[in-house]
Design goal:
The chain has two helices and nine strands. With about 130 residues, it is mainly β. The chain has one domain.
């Protein structure tokens, strides 16, 4: 038997994004790596218009400017989208609940996209 030990640096971490109190959608470092996100990208965000019970979001990463997409912003090592108005429009209460999206790669109509599966947690009250 040959045992190969896995180093912590080889495990990518959670591929997720989180809606912050200010409405920005921030990506984990593992998500940035997996989705190959940079400041040059734009991200289109959509919903499943046929299934209202599907609380997930669907995103497409674009390498060029698109008026219908969100510009990727960067602060330090942190990548985010200015999505406050989007979440307000979708009536997602990111102020009272901690909203986390787990990201998985999918294919839709021959195009690589990502599905963001929503999780809600209670926010810890300020002490």
């Amino acid at each position: 038997m040959k045992i190969k030990f896995i180093t912590p640096s080889s495990v990518p971490g959670k591929i997720k994004c989180t809606v912050h109190l200010n409405g920005k959608l921030g990506f984990s470092q593992a998500a940035v790596k997996k989705l190959d996100i940079s400041e040059a990208n734009y991200i289109k965000i959509g919903i499943n218009d046929e299934d209202r019970n599907d609380s997930g979001l669907y995103i497409a990463i674009l390498k060029r400017k698109d008026e219908d997409a969100f510009k990727v912003n960067k602060a330090g090592n942190y990548y985010y989208l200015n999505t406050m108005y989007l979440f307000d429009e979708l009536k997602i209460d990111y102020r009272k609940k901690k909203i986390i999206y787990d990201i998985q790669e999918i294919e839709h109509e021959g195009m690589k996209m990502y599905k963001l599966d929503k999780r809600e947690l209670n926010r810890n009250p300020k002490k």
